[in-house]
Structures are given as C-alpha cells and as structure tokens.
Design brief:
The chain is an alpha+beta fold. Helix content is 40%, strand content 18%.
C-alpha cells in the first residue's frame, strides 16, 4: 500500500491536495523528522490538522517514520514539535525504519516536555524560536496554568461560556508572552508591542485561545471527542525574503490576497536592510467540531453553508454562545491584525479565511471578501495570527 508522503516542505496547498485525494481513509502516513523553518507561520499546525483529519477518518491509522528504533534522542527531537507528538498521539501504530512499533516510546519521550508545559517551565518548553503548549484529553490532565486562571471543573468543561471565562485575561496573556520572549532571548524585539497600554499581543493570544477553548471538546451532535488535542504555538521565526514571497495558502481566492500581502512584506525595506524578516506568530489548533459546525448547531437553518456560518463568526455580535458579550473575539483579532500589518488565517470545516490589510480590506469589510468555502473538509479549527516585527 502506498503512503501519504508529507515532506519537509509540505504547506497548505499540498495539504489541500491530500485532503481532496480521498486517500486519508485507507493509507498510512509517512512524515519527516522535522519541517522546513520548523513549520513557521502556521505550517506545523496545518500539518497537525491534516494528521488529525487522517486519524479520524482512517480505521487503522499507521504512522511511518524515518526514525531508528531505540534512538531516544531521535524520539525526543521528533516529538519536540507539535506535528510529531500529534502524529504519535493520533496513530494506532508508529513504525521505525525497521518496521517495529515505536509509538509507546515516542509518547514516553515527550513526557518530560509535556510536564514542563503543564508547570509553565518555559525554559524546558522552548525549542529554537518556538514555545508550544500542548493540551490533551480531559480538563484535569490538560490543565495549563499559563493559559487558564484555574483548572476547569467537570461542570465548567461542559459549559462553553464558563470554560471560556477561565482563560487568562489579555493582561495575563501579555505577561506570558513577555516571559516567552525572554526565554527565547527576543524580548527586545517585542518590547514596543508588549509595553503598549492596550496589550495588543496579549489580546490576540487571549481571543485566539478562548475561541478554540470554547469549541474544542464536543461534536455538533453531542458526545465528546476523544482523543482531544489542542496546541498553542508561539514563535518568532526569521525567514528569508525569497521564502516569504513564495508562501501559499489553501484556496485560490485566499491565494490572491496572500500573494499580494507576502510580496509586499518581502519587498519592504528598513534602514538595516536585513536579508531575513522576523515574524511573531500565534497559532492555535483544536480538535473540536469546527466553527461552522458549532455555529450551525445553534442555528435552526439546516441549509446554511459552512461558509455562511464562518462569515457569521466574523460578524461583530455573532456567536454560538448566549452571552451578550459573545461574538467579539474574531472581530477584535481582525482589528489588532490590521493595526499591526499582520495576517489572520482560519481553516475549519470546508472553509478558509485569510485576512490581510491589502486590496482595500479593513476590519469592517464584509467577511465575504476574505472567507472562502468549497474546500475539502478538515477536522478541528486552526487559527493563525502572524505579525512582521523586523525587516
């Protein structure tokens, strides 16, 4: 049987090809030990979303790797990124180059790093220019003090709104980001943004994580998703300008906006005329039903398309939750992204949204201009916010 071959350079466009091929339900997946540029700008979690979709559709998900059996250092490096850990977590079997099953030792190799995440030990969580918080299974087991004010109780976990209220405030999230930048020795690069009165970076992380925290656990028809997987990825990668100009996204319509944006960013100059551009990235992936399914669950119109549902998500006061304060999260993110000349990408259900301040787009523009449907369905929701912070 042929394998679905994920390479170091696999990106959103290639992922869409895999999703549309119909192969996920019947074939093994082979993934590399690492991704180009560590999967920066949302690519690592886009690959993770593909793996989640594969595992849920495949009755016997077998992962194939380039790892040597018994090599603990290789195991740790492999599970040191979200896509590697997720692959081992989702698969029923993970094979080394000799065909032996190494799934259990792979998961064991990540135990120390996961413990560091749960203890907010950033120095043991950081990897290169990336810090990841990976949350799995139930609330007690996945509690992370960096992201929640306290561990959600079973009752709070059942209530999306109460669960969301436990997410750390924008001010606390800003402090977390400051600690992350310090751990990565990049505090000076973000000092101006971190010290702004309205804490725009903390606001971005708060809204991004809260949007997924409130929708992560339950399918639209009730019950509970197992295994449950969520990841918050905070990165500050340096990318060369040529690479930036070639970044792709999923849908052709989003691609037009993305191409204009990335070519502008790649051509932007500063007094220092650097060959590489530094970005600040927040990517959040959850393994829930997806924005469209969650919104549709709260809406009695069964004819509503996924695209229409996600367009509603971007409306200023639209939400699947009953609170009068609901429905502001994505709108707030758009405003901050626009002000900081960044981009927002959401991939959920059969929809991709890609927003960047180009071609006349503004936060109050109709979401129909940047939300596009008709893609192959994916599991969960991936939300990526990226800001250029150094040219």
């Amino acid at each position: 049987m042929a394998d679905i071959q994920i390479t170091r350079d696999t990106g959103p466009a290639e992922i869409e090809t895999f999703l549309a091929s119909g192969r996920l339900a019947k074939e093994c997946v082979k993934i590399p030990n690492s991704l180009t540029n560590s999967g920066a700008l949302g690519v690592s979690l886009a690959v993770t979303q593909l793996l989640l979709t594969w595992a849920r559709r495949n009755e016997d998900p077998v992962l194939r790797t380039n790892l040597n059996a018994g090599d603990d250092e290789e195991y740790k490096a492999f599970t040191g990124g979200a896509h590697g850990l997720a692959a081992a977590f989702f698969a029923d079997r993970a094979e080394a180059t000799d065909g032996s099953d190494i799934r259990r030792p792979l998961l064991e190799s990540a135990r120390e790093r996961i413990r560091a995440m749960h203890e907010s030990n950033l120095s043991n969580t950081a990897r290169g220019s990336i810090i990841e918080f990976i949350l799995v299974q139930g609330a007690k087991a996945e509690f992370h003090g960096a992201l929640y004010s306290k561990a959600p109780s079973a009752a709070e976990l059942l209530d999306r709104e109460k669960h969301g209220h436990l997410v750390q405030s924008p001010t606390a999230m800003n402090a977390l980001l400051s600690s992350c930048a310090k751990s990565l020795s990049l505090e000076s690069k973000l000092k101006g943004l971190l010290e702004q009165r309205n804490a725009p970076l903390g606001q971005l992380l708060h809204e991004s994580f809260r949007n997924t925290a409130e929708h992560a656990y339950y399918p639209a028809n009730g019950g509970r998703f197992l295994p449950n997987f969520r990841c918050v990825r905070i990165g500050m990668p340096y990318l060369n300008r040529e690479h930036v100009s070639r970044i792709s996204v999923s849908s052709p319509e989003s691609g037009a906006i993305a191409s204009t944006y990335f070519h502008r960013i790649a051509g932007k100059q500063s007094d220092e005329q650097r060959s590489r551009i530094m970005f600040f990235e927040i990517s959040v992936l959850d393994s829930g039903a997806g924005f469209a399914s969650t919104i549709s669950q709260a809406n009695t119109d069964a004819r509503r398309s996924d695209r229409d549902a996600v367009i509603q998500c971007f409306g200023k006061h639209s939400s699947a939750k009953p609170s009068r304060n609901s429905g502001l999260g994505l709108n707030r993110i758009l405003k901050e992204v626009h002000a900081l000349d960044g981009f927002l990408r959401v991939r959920t259900n059969t929809v991709e949204a890609f927003y960047a301040p180009v071609d006349g787009l503004r936060p109050d523009s109709s979401p129909e201009m940047y939300v596009h449907g008709g893609l192959s369905p994916v599991e969960g929701t991936l939300l990526t916010v990226v800001l250029p912070v150094g040219y």
